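Pilot study result, target chain (200 residues):
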Amino acid sequence: MKPIVAHLLYRVRRLIAAVARLFAAWRGPRRIPTAAGLPAWAEVRRRRRAHIRRVAGLVDAWASEIDVASSERRRWLAAVWLHDALRDARLPAGTSHGAAAADRAARDGETDRGVLDAVRFHSVGYAGWDDVGRMLYLADYLEPGRKGRRKERARLAKRVPRQRDAVLREVVARQIEEQLAAGRPIDPLTLAFWNSLAPD
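Predicted structure:
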């Protein structure tokens, strides 16, 4: 009888550990970068702030795994903290929150064109992006707090440090498929971004 109890306890412990790992993956990285933060002019509600923190945690984890230079990590995180800074603000009709945040950041002294372009076009993609835009686009889509396809997103996020460009193509394809399934038009910037990612 004792061996059966020991075996059951062993199985229960393994199940608990597996569930804990699964929930940890959904929560995302525990360490949230503090080198940057939301600007004073940000207008974000609590849920949006939590999303931004998860995006920052994911980008920071990727930067560590890829071992990018600290200056490049700062650029990535600057874009993360700005990208949804005006997501909950009342904006003029036809103004995207990304464009509004990029314009405001530029007025506040941000001069890095890569950071500003990443923020401006993070919702649709942009063929002229450098690594800042690409990493923000991926992290914004793959952050672990988003509902739906969580396991799939976690698998893609895990691949980014080793296979960034392949994952980027998969994510853009999924974004386009989701737009088509919803009967919405595809933004020309998204199509140009997709075309720029096609392998030679």
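One observation from the pilot: Helices lie at 2-27, 46-66, 70-83, 97-107, 113-120, 131-142, 150-181, 188-197. A full batch analysis is planned for the follow-on phase.
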